[in-house]
Amino acid sequence: MDRYRVIKQLGDGTYGEVLKASNKATGEIVAVKRMKRKYRSWEECIALKEVKVLRKMKHPNIVRLKEVIKENDILYFVFEFLDQNLYELSKNRRKAFPECAIRNYMFHVLQGLSYMHKCGYYHRDIKPENILVCGDIAKVADFGLAKEIHSRPPQTDYVSTRWYRAPEVLLRSPSYNAPIDVWAVGCMMVELMMLRPLFPGSSEADVLFKICTVLGTPTAETWRDGIKQASMINYRFPKLSPAPLQSIVQHASQESLAVIADMLLWDPSQRPTCSECLQYPFFRLRYGQTPTSTS
User: Fold this and answer.
1) Boundaries of each Protein kinase domain copy (predicted)?
2) Within this chain, do residues 53 and 142 fall inside the same structural domain, yes or no?
């Protein structure tokens, strides 16, 4: 790490802290993730899921890993630096983002995730803090919880921040997969429109309750596997009618509501893939076309 000068701390998490630094020789600004756990061997470092994922993926909408450094049993990831994340960008706003900005950011996120899924991994922790932005460019970051799409169940370890957690994860399904990333993107889209989380529950049961207030109670027709999974953990869905999305996000266009509604389907097998989302009219609108208002 002698080649870098630390400027300031950007964040501190469970597994590591993130630092803003500059390359002493070139002056280039980078983000350095310093892991908290000690690593005795280089083989141990290379075997890390985050290293495997990032070394395999090269995409303009995935944050670029520049190098991995091991020094005195401490592991450092050196990334390209982006100004801020989507949470920071939105937390002090008083006025909702224009829909064209939301379309742009979510287009980039879906492009990055689509590539990731095609590479055989899903993210498992999509949230505004893990989407880095610089100008009008958005990139997916933080792959510490990523997993292989074809890995064998059970998938039982911690996954995703609660407010963006898909219902199959909240019900502790042993076989969730890439559709949980699509659900999280749908939650983020609505959050950028409202400037507040869609399902801000204080517990897993509370998040499920809040999902039911929007989607209505699932049935055997809308999500048979979910009804079975709920009964296996002795969870009883509250009896609620769905609320139209346009009553929640009143100024959203019909095109945006159409893709959000499908991203937030109870049944993960019915949600569109990331690449299918990009084919919806909302993302195919060209300059000069006006989205259809619902108000």
Assistant:
1) 4-283
2) no
Nearest Cα neighbor of 144 from 67, 60, 70, 77 is 77
33 in a known ligand binding site: yes
CA–CA gap between residue 76 and residue 71 (Å, rounded): 8
Q: Tens of pLDDT along the chain (295 residues)?
A: 889 999 999 988 777 899 999 999 999 999 999 999 899 988 888 888 888 888 889 999 999 999 999 999 999 999 999 989 999 999 888 888 999 999 999 999 999 999 999 999 999 999 999 999 999 999 999 998 888 998 766 555 555 578 999 999 999 998 899 999 999 999 999 999 999 999 999 999 999 999 999 999 999 999 999 999 999 999 999 999 999 999 999 899 999 999 999 999 999 999 999 999 999 999 987 444 555 655 4
Query: Does 73 participate in catalysis according to the annotation?
Result: no
pTM: 0.92
Amino acid at site 105 = Y
**Beta strand 74-80 with 29-35: parallel, antiparallel or unpaired?**
antiparallel
Q: Which of 12, 83, 125, 262 is catalytic?
A: 125
Considering the domain architecture, whether residues 256 and 225 belong to the same structural domain is answered as yes
What is the domain extent for residue 225?
84-284
